[in-house]
């Protein structure tokens, strides 16, 4: 990808480094999250705040509670209070562009994390995992696991209009079709229904209950993140269904990884909130110090992987925040 760099190149291009005493005195960092409804987002903001404080910066944070208008107001408030670096996880790829542009015009360095933003926005860069490639690898795994068995799938999506969810589910379906073609010389699957779980476990539980009631013959539950799938597992347990494969397009939440180790959860994509957030802060601090080149990539992607029982020990950390 022309305007993206890998995690390895990123590690070479960006080092944390502390600010000088004068820079630290003037360093104010704002972390604007569109939601903290899922453990992933809580881990992300915690990592961003910790990394900024380690550099000697004053940090403020906000939770827009999944309300785009509130997030716009949160960003405007942070700018008015003099933040020099804004770490922004946007509710909407288009709706937050004017706020980001206004912040940049006011001299703020804006780094977008996790959720996508329209490339026309005037920002330093976007840092996230490769949702498409994580999904693709999960899809390949699903094709192999279900080889020879017709797939009747229930889909748990995050929020309507969110590009992350869009890229994740289409990545899975692309990998699934390719895997079926390679493994069986033909492709086909049914999506029996789609529910919206707002990325959260409790809402994933409710969406799964409704889907299972409408489609009791489903044999696969796919979520766009682990939290919603963990909720779906409660719905499956309550309904007495034990023959349904559960998996997620991305995240790597430690509770899901523990279940993968036990063989009760199929697979998930690698999406490390700690790495994404800390990398974003490091890039932003470099921007404040004027140490980024004029052609610094506008998109920075971390390495994709599918986490399964075969490799889960590489990623599972019992003491992880997420």
Describe what this molecule looks like in 3D:
- The chain has a 7-stranded parallel β-sheet with strand order 1-12-6-5-4-2-3, sandwiched between helices. A 4-stranded parallel β-sheet has the order 8-7-9-10, with helices on both faces.
- It is 45% helix and 18% strand.
- The chain has 322 residues and is of the alpha/beta class.
- The protein has helices spanning 7-13, 21-25, 39-54, 68-80, 97-105, 131-145, 163-184, 201-214, 226-239, 254-262, 273-288, 312-315, and strands at residues 4-5, 28-33, 58-63, 85-89, 109-113, 125-129, 152-157, 190-196, 220-223, 245-248, 268-269, 299-302, 306-307.
- The model is unreliable at 7-16 (pLDDT under 50).
Short description:
The protein is an alpha/beta fold. 45% of the residues lie in helices and 18% in strands.
Q: What is the gyration radius calculated from CA atoms?
A: 20 Å
Taking the alpha carbons of the first and last residues, their distance comes to: 29 Å
What is the molecular shape? elongated
Q: Biggest β-sheet: count, sense, barrel?
A: 7 strands, parallel
Layout of SSEs?
Elements lengths: L3 E2 L1 H7 L7 H5 L2 E6 L5 H16 L3 E6 L4 H13 L4 E5 L7 H9 L3 E5 L11 E5 L1 H15 L6 E6 L5 H22 L5 E7 L4 H14 L5 E4 L2 H14 L5 E4 L5 H9 L5 E2 L3 H16 L10 E4 L3 E2 L4 H4 L7
Parallel strand pairs: 1-12, 2-3, 2-4, 4-5, 5-6, 6-12, 7-8, 7-9, 9-10
Antiparallel strand pairs: 11-13
Helix pairs in contact: 3-11, 4-5, 6-7, 8-9
């Amino acid at each position: 990808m022309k305007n993206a760099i890998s995690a390895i190149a990123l590690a070479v291009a960006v080092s944390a480094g502390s600010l000088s005493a004068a820079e630290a005195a003037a360093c104010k960092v704002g972390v604007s999250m569109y939601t903290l409804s899922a453990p992933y987002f809580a881990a992300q903001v915690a990592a961003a705040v910790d990394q900024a404080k380690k550099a000697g910066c004053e940090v403020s944070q906000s939770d827009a509670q999944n309300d785009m208008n509130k997030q716009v107001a949160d960003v405007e408030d942070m700018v008015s209070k003099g933040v020099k670096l804004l770490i922004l996880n946007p509710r909407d790829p288009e709706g937050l562009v004017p706020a980001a542009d206004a912040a940049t015009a006011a001299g703020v360095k804006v780094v977008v994390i996790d959720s996508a933003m329209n490339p026309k926005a005037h920002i330093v860069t976007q840092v996230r995992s490769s949702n498409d490639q994580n999904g693709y690898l999960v899809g390949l795994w699903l094709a192999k696991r279900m080889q020879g068995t017709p797939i009747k799938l229930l889909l748990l999506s995050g929020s309507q209009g969110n590009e992350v969810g869009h890229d994740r589910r289409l990545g899975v379906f692309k990998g699934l079709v390719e895997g079926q073609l390679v493994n069986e010389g033909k492709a086909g699957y049914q999506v029996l229904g789609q529910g919206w779980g707002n990325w959260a476990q409790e809402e994933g539980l409710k969406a799964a209950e409704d889907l299972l009631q409408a489609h009791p013959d489903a044999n696969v539950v796919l979520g766009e993140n682990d939290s919603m799938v963990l909720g779906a597992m409660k719905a499956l347990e309550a309904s007495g269904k034990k023959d349904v494969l559960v998996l997620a397009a991305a995240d790597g939440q430690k509770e899901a990884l523990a279940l993968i180790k036990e063989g009760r959860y199929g697979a998930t994509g690698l999406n490390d909130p700690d790495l994404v957030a800390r990398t974003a802060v490091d890039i932003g601090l470099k921007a404040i110090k004027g140490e980024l080149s004029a052609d610094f990539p506008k998109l920075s992607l971390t390495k994709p992987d599918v986490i399964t029982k075969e490799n889960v020990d590489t990623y599972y950390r019992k003491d992880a925040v997420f």
